[in-house]
Amino acid sequence: MIKVFHYDRSTACQRVRLLLEEKKLEWESTIVDTARGDIDDLPENYYTLNPKGLTPVIIHEGKAIPESLIILEYLEDKFPTPCFRPDSAEDKANMRLWMRKIDDGIHVASRTIGVCLVNRHIYEEKDPDLIKKYYDKMKDEVRKNNDQVNIEYGLESPLLPNAIAQFKKLFTEMDNHLKTHKWLVNDNYSLADIALVVYLQRLESFMMAPLWSDLSYLDNWYERISNRNAYKKAVLDWGDITASKRKENGLKAFKKINQYWLDN
Ligand SMILES: N[C@@H](CCC(=O)N[C@@H](CS)C(=O)NCC(=O)O)C(=O)O
């Protein structure tokens, strides 16, 4: 049995759950949700499972594996049927190049948007000592420093325009590719589609879908994945405890975000 440490709305956890559901694997859920500053909710030994203290982590055959993109490849290696990785070396490289964009900036950009629009308001409502403890324990210095800027400046954060620009670049690139291909790698649904789709859901949760309304191939791709049973089970059914806050703050921010999108 695969044990998964995760929480509802985390994009990194959503992609792992999506692959688990696509492969129809049985797994056991443990919720670890520190994203609203509740660092005390982290299980005692969690840093031995993931030195960064983040989710997801899976435990399989006694071994803990963090990092969602590594987990996707691990599951593919261990449970190759049905298969979500192409055969040829060239296609595998293409698949990994799409996935690489996540660790090359998109995941950080997604956090920037989240902190500027929502997390800063959630932290404001909490005991300041608790939030201090949360940041004292945060291992990733870049994440910590970016968060400080994004909490202080919100929609005026100097990091926000570039975060939006990165999404515009990625979504435009995906749309161009999808004009002539059914999926991101040739005509087979792969780990690349599974890894990236969660960011459309994330931006949509902020009511930002109008930004990419002219990217119809991307929109169609998103719709095709959203209609899959596995997606419903892995993403929609788990929901998002902060959905109303995302919607409310996303709507308030839309004019500014749209301007950042148009400026780039
Ligand atoms: N590169 C990591 C990123 C993991 C990550 O950022 N996890 C977030 C959720 S998407 C988390 O654990 N957040 C907890 C928090 O913010 O306190 C991966 O792909 O697994």
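^ glutathione complex. The radius of gyration is 18 Å. The longest helix spans residues 89-124.
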